[in-house]
Specification:
The protein is α+β, with helices and mostly antiparallel strands. The protein has 9 helices and 9 strands. The two termini are about 40 Å apart.
Length: about 240
C-alpha cells in the first residue's frame, strides 16, 4: 500500500451516521472485517470516498475507537444506558457490532467475550489513571479494589469497571502489569493482593479480600522545555 493510499480519508456511513477516518487506521487491524476490506480493496464506495454499512450507527463509535486505540471501550457509566436513542447504546448492542466487524471472534462464547472486553477496559482504566498522574505531576498513587465492588481511586473511573476490578485482577493482574510495563516504561505498577484482608501499620484494618495497586512515576523525566515547545506556549516565528 502506497503512502498516499494509506493516508486516504475514508467516510464510513453507518446506518446514516457518518464517521471520517484514514484507510491506514482501518488496515492497522488486518484481522478485522474493515481491516481486510480496505487492505485488499474488496469494497466499493457508494460515492466518492464514502462507504455505506447498514449497521448500528451509534454503536459504531465504539468500533472505530478500537481501530484508533487498539482497545475495546464501552460507555463510561451505567447511567448513560437508555433506550431513548439519545444516550449511549447498550453493551449488548455494542458487542453485536464488535462481532459483526470481527473485532471479537464470533466463535468466542458470550461470557468469554464479556470478560475479554472488561479486561481491555481495565488496561485502559490504568492508562487513564497514569495520564492523570502525569498531568498533575503526582509521583505516587495508591488505588484499592474490594471484592464486594467498592473501590477507592482519586480520579474519575468508570464505575462499572471499578466495581468489577477485583475479580478481573484476581485472574489477570500479572498480565496487566506486564502489558503496562511494556507499554509505558516510565510507569512502575505493583499489584498487592490481600485475599484474607489486612491490618496496615497505621492501624487501618480492611477485613475483606482486596487489591492495593501502587503506581509510581519518575518525576525526573519531566523536560519542561520540551513540554513548553510541544504546547500552545511554544515560540512561533513571526
Amino acid at each position: 500500500m502506497s503512502q498516499s493510499t494509506a493516508d486516504e480519508r475514508i467516510i464510513l456511513n453507518v446506518g446514516g451516521v457518518k464517521y471520517e477516518t484514514l484507510r491506514s487506521t482501518l488496515t492497522s487491524q488486518p484481522h478485522t472485517l474493515l481491516g481486510k476490506l480496505f487492505k485488499e480493496n474488496t469494497i466499493k464506495p457508494t460515492k466518492g470516498n464514502e462507504y455505506f454499512f447498514d449497521r448500528n450507527g451509534r454503536a459504531f463509535h465504539y468500533v472505530l475507537e478500537y481501530y484508533r486505540t487498539g482497545r475495546i471501550t464501552l460507555p463510561r457509566d451505567s447511567k448513560d444506558f437508555n433506550t431513548s436513542g439519545k444516550g449511549a447504546p447498550l453493551n449488548h448492542d455494542i458487542i453485536e457490532e464488535l462481532n459483526y466487524f470481527e473485532i471479537v471472534p464470533k466463535h468466542l462464547p458470550f461470557q468469554n467475550k464479556a470478560l475479554a472486553i472488561r479486561l481491555d477496559e481495565m488496561v485502559g482504566m490504568f492508562m487513564d489513571i497514569y495520564f492523570e498522574m502525569a498531568a498533575r505531576m503526582v509521583t505516587n498513587l495508591s488505588v484499592r479494589f474490594h471484592i464486594d465492588g467498592y473501590f477507592a481511586v482519586p480520579c474519575d473511573v468508570n464505575t462499572l469497571i471499578g466495581s468489577s476490578a477485583y475479580v478481573v485482577l484476581e485472574k489477570f493482574s500479572q498480565d496487566i502489569q506486564s502489558h503496562l510495563s511494556n507499554s509505558i516504561p516510565e510507569l512502575k505498577i505493583t499489584f498487592n493482593h490481600f485475599p484474607k484482608g489486612f491490618q496496615y501499620p497505621d492501624g487501618e484494618t480492611v477485613p475483606i479480600p482486596h487489591f492495593d495497586v501502587e503506581l509510581t512515576l519518575n518525576k525526573d523525566q519531566y523536560d519542561f522545555d520540551l513540554i513548553r515547545n510541544n504546547s500552545c506556549l511554544r515560540s512561533r516565528d513571526p
